[in-house]
From TrEMBL, chains A, B:
The keyword ATP-binding does not apply. Pfam families: CASP_dom. Residues 27-174 form the Casparian strip membrane protein domain. This is CASP-like protein. It is found in: Cell membrane. Belongs to the Casparian strip membrane proteins (CASP) family. InterPro entries: CASP/CASPL (IPR006459), CASP_dom (IPR006702), CASPL (IPR044173). It comes from the Eukaryota.
Length: 194, 194
């Protein structure tokens, strides 16, 4: 255990320097969870509000309104579900982290559970980003081999919403990776210190 | 560094149970890395060998041979690249883990670096699985809203290759998640024990 550096707590001699660095790490942890919350929430809102209706000529002299909506593709439904879960998760763990900050430090057990779920969420959100990105790329560029036509030349604002949303979910994935890395760093620091 | 438990080192008396459990965890670690190697390698091989040529009628009386290949879609090129990286990574870390096993235990520093890269690879492989899965689903079911026709009714063996490959990469992702969880468990056990 580390030595004393505060005169106020002579009995808890070993905890002071460990505690101050642990507090710094908790502040970064809370900041990353707030970032995760913000990016996931905005990504879901942008995706859900991306509906665009255009008048499409289906026959000579006949023009009908056709919608482009996110729930036309299962990849985007999964995307919205995964990002919503990430958003909810970030609220719960963010609040718990703030409580730990107010109590003056987090327990190893709590960090252990957090990093387990962070890693699981990382997999889920990364897969959602990949799925949405793969399908959106076909929408943007089309695929001449399978004769899938691009739709972004018609539904411009819809595609802009999608691109922004996928970019934000990429930020969410990276934030989750940073959270996992931070927790592992904190855990291995604890081992090195003892 | 993991302590010794041989009778030649009687001074480090407290280390025996730690070492034996550390060895058990290393064996599981090596087994998971072998599984990761096998699934990633087979997924890449199945994907790369999925080429199928069919005679497609393009006009009345005119039939031309048309290929279906994985590199017709950028999502699948990324998939092959990501799984190849995972395969190479599993070889390197697997060999290092076997060396650690022969030396009688792994250091905390090595575990720290492994779990960092494991988490990064988890994100990359999960995103690749998602991207390939999203595009393959369109190939399987089509999308009536964007008028993207399904191709799996024509290229059956090609699609079977794809489905197997994506399933294997899902196993790779789960293996990487288990590797991250195992490392975190080992690290927090070390903290609890000290």
């Amino acid at each position: 255990m580390a030595p004393i550096d505060t005169p106020e707590a002579p009995l808890k001699s070993s905890s002071a320097p460990e505690n101050s660095s642990s507090m710094g790490q908790l502040v970064v942890d809370v900041a990353l969870r707030v970032l995760l919350f913000a990016t996931a929430l905005v990504a879901v809102i942008i995706m859900v509000t991306s509906k665009q209706t255009k008048m499409i000529p289906v026959a000579p002299g006949l023009v009908v309104p056709l919608d482009a909506k996110f729930d036309h593709s299962p990849a985007f439904i999964y995307f919205v579900a995964a990002l919503s879960v990430a958003c909810l998760y970030s609220i719960i763990t963010g609040v718990l982290s703030v409580f730990a900050l107010m109590r003056g430090g987090s327990s190893t057990k709590m960090q252990f559970h957090f990093v387990m779920f962070d890693a699981l969420l990382l997999g889920i959100v990364a897969a959602a980003t990949g799925a949405a990105g793969g399908v959106a790329y076909i929408g943007l560029k089309g695929n001449s081999h399978t004769r899938w036509n691009k739709i972004c030349n018609t539904y411009g604002s819809f595609c802009f919403h999608f691109a922004s949303s996928i970019l934000l979910s990429l930020v969410s994935s990276i934030t989750l990776l940073l959270l996992v890395w931070l927790s592992i760093y904190v855990l291995s620091k604890k081992i090195a210190r003892r």
